[in-house]
Amino acid sequence: MKKQLLGVNITISPKDEIVTSIRAYLRKTDADLAEKHSMKKAPFLVVTPNPEQIMYAEKHPDFAKLLNTADVALPDGIGIVWGMKRFFGISISRISGIDFMQDLVHEAHRNNWKIACFGGWGTVSAKALQELQNTYVGLNGWTETLPEFEIDASNQLITKSTGLPIETEFFEKLARRITDGETRLIFVGLGVPKQEIFMSLLKKQLMQQKSGPVVLMAVGGSFDMIAGFIPRAPSWIRAGGLEWLYRLVKEPWRWKRQLQLILFVLLVIRERFFHTKK
C-alpha cells in the first residue's frame, strides 16, 4: 500500500509484509508468472525515498516519475515518517535502505538466490560483497566494475570519460549476464539520481531479454557501510531518529545536503496547512 507525499509514492506497509511480497515474487516460476497478467517478468523495483530525494523530485519531474514507477518505495528517513504523520495522520516506522538490503540478502542466503552488487567507489562493492559472504557463508554473488557515471543537463546518464550516453550494448551485456546466470537480487549503489536512472535502463533490457524474476534495489551508500569504510550510527541513535545528525558529525561536508531536510519540513508545513491538497 502506498500514499503520495509531495507527489512521491511512499510504501506504508510494514517491513515484514514487504519482504514477504518480494519473497513470493522471487519464488514465482515462469509458468506462475505467465498465468497472471499482473505478474509478468517485469523486474521488481525498490527505491528508498528520503526528504533529500523528495526535494530533488520537486525540481526534477522525471526523477519523480522514476520513483513512482517502483513497486516499493521505502520510507528511508525520519523526515518521511514525520511527513506521513502530518499529512495523513499515519504512523509508520522508518525502514532504512541498508537494513532492508540486509533482510533481502538474508532471504537470498536462505533460498540460494544469486545476488549482484553494482556501484560504489573503486572496489567498494566487491568489498561489501565479501563482507556479506563472510556473514552469510555460501552466499552466491558477483560484482561488476562499472564506468564512472555523471548526469548531464537533460538529466540523462552519461559516461564521465566520454561525456556520451551509455551505449545500449553495455546494458544488453549486463542484462544477459544477469539472465543467463539467474541472478535474482541486484543492489545498485550509485547515488541519487544515477542509481534510479541506471535501474530504469537495466530494467528495460531485462524485460526485452525476458529474464526470470529479478529484484532491483537502490542502496545509496550502503556498500560503504557494509564494507566498513563509513561507520554507521549506534543502534540507540538510529532508534531515536538521529542517524542523520550522526552522519553529519562524521561527515561535516554533508551540511549542504542536510539543508534539504529543513526545506522539506517547511514544504510539508506549507502544503499541509496553507495550500489546498492537489
Identify the overall geometry. globular
Give the helix level as a range of percent.
40-55%
Report the β-strand fraction as a percent range: 15-25%
The number of domains? 1
Order of adjacent strands in the largest pleated sheet: 4-3-11-10-5-6
Radius of gyration: 19 Å
Distance between the termini: 20 Å
Secondary-structure element series: EEHHEHHEHHEHEEEEHEHEHHHH
Question: What does it look like?
Answer:
This protein has 278 residues and is an alpha/beta fold. It has one domain (40-223, 233-272). It has helices at residues 15-26, 30-35, 51-59, 61-68, 78-88, 97-111, 124-135, 168-180, 194-208, 222-227, 235-239, 243-250, 255-273; strands spanning 2-5, 8-11, 44-47, 72-73, 114-119, 141-144, 149-151, 157-159, 164-165, 183-189, 215-218. The longest helix is centred in the C-terminal third of the chain and has 19 residues, at 255-273. It is globular and about 55 Å long.
Task: Tag the structure with descriptive keywords.
278 residues; alpha/beta; three-stranded antiparallel sheet; 13 helices; 11 strands; 50% helix
SSE blueprint:
Elements (H helix, E strand, L loop, with lengths): L1 E4 L2 E4 L3 H12 L3 H6 L8 E4 L3 H9 L1 H8 L3 E2 L4 H11 L8 H15 L2 E6 L4 H12 L5 E4 L4 E3 L5 E3 L4 E2 L2 H13 L2 E7 L4 H15 L6 E4 L3 H6 L7 H5 L3 H8 L4 H19 L5
Parallel strand pairs: 3-4, 3-11, 5-6, 5-10, 10-11
Antiparallel strand pairs: 1-2, 7-8, 8-9
